[in-house]
Amino acid sequence: MKIIGFSSLKKTLLAYPSMELLPLSGSLSLGIGRRTCIGKWQAGVYSSCDSEAVPVCGSCEEFNACAICTGTCLKEEKTCLEEHAVYIAMFRPDIFKIGVTKASRLDDRLREQGADVGAVVDYVLDGELARRRERELQKRYRIKGTVRHSQKMLVDTEIDWAAWDAMKAKMDINGETKLRYFDVPLWMRPLQEKNMLLGRVIGVKGRLVVLEKDATLYGFDLNNILGAEVSPIESSKRQISLHIT
Q1: CA distances (Å), 8 to each of 100, 133, 149, 205, in order?
Q2: Segment 107-126, tens digit of pLDDT
Q3: Is residue 69 part of a domain?
Q4: Is pLDDT at 34 greater than 90 in this prediction?
Q5: pTM higher than the cut 0.70
Q6: By residue range, what is the domain housing residue 9?
């Protein structure tokens, strides 16, 4: 089977051709094989693709004008006509970003990115105005709009609450959303793994899955499974399925 998508919110993988949702929970034993393009969806219909360009080839990649909007709508007709939130998020220990999302998706958006804490800086009438406000705040406070995945790997560090409180005071923010991802406190920085999902799932933080095997933590970037052929790993003692055991 081939993995063509994942949801960090639902903690699932989407497998082709069955279109089954596979849980990222319990004990996993999954080998990662050859990767090809994830394909594309059109009008709710999925089309497979075998291009070696991963995770998506030029023919299957969709142009998303909203994703690259900087405050001037690039569409023929503006569609972001709902309230948006301009937010600040912090990642362990003290890495900040300023971003934009639909107000109704604020908590989901923070979780999708793996933020440890976030707060609304401003509510704006539509997405176009929100992008302008976002750029203004990024420039004023010298805070970027992106955080690299490698920076998000610092999941074993303590949150610098003093830095967070200082930023809130500087920006005159009230309220905050704290987010929790793991079943137990992490006792070490996860070792990076690319070839398999093996062990007991401790949690999913953004696109990072943390697993425990033999008292060691491993971290797997879900982007590395997109378009990959996967299969259960057989053990000399037993075979563990992808599903919860």
Answers
A1: 19, 28, 14, 7
A2: 999 999 999 999 999 999 99
A3: no
A4: yes
A5: yes
A6: 2-56+183-232
The region, left, alpha or beta by phi > 0 then psi within -120 to 50, assigned to residue 195 is: alpha
Please write the tens of the pLDDT for every residue from 142-180.
999 999 999 999 999 999 999 999 999 999 999 999 999
Residue 170 lies in a domain: yes
Give residue 68's pLDDT band: very low, low, confident or very high (50, 70, 90): confident
Tell me if 237 is assigned to some domain: no
Partners of 14 in the β-ladder:
5, 21
Pick the last residue of a domain from 136, 152, 178. 178
Could you give the number of structural domains in the chain?
A: 2
Q: What is the pLDDT of residues 212-243, one digit of tens each?
A: 999 999 999 999 999 999 999 875 444 434 44
Query: Does residue 42 sit in the same domain as residue 110?
Result: no
- The radius of gyration of the chain's CA atoms, rounded to the nearest angstrom, is 20
Rounded Cα distance between 30 and 10, Å, is 19
Tokens 């990959």 -> residue: 228
**In this structure, are 141 and 164 located in the same domain?**
yes
Helix (H/G/I), strand (E/B), else coil: 131: helix
d(CA 97, CA 121): 12
CA 110 to chain CA centroid, nearest Å = 9
User: What residues contact 31, with CB distance under 8 A and at least 6 apart?
Assistant: 195, 196, 230, 231, 232, 233
User: Alpha-carbon distance 233 to 245, whole Å?
Assistant: 14
Tell me: do 132 and 164 sit in the same domain.
yes
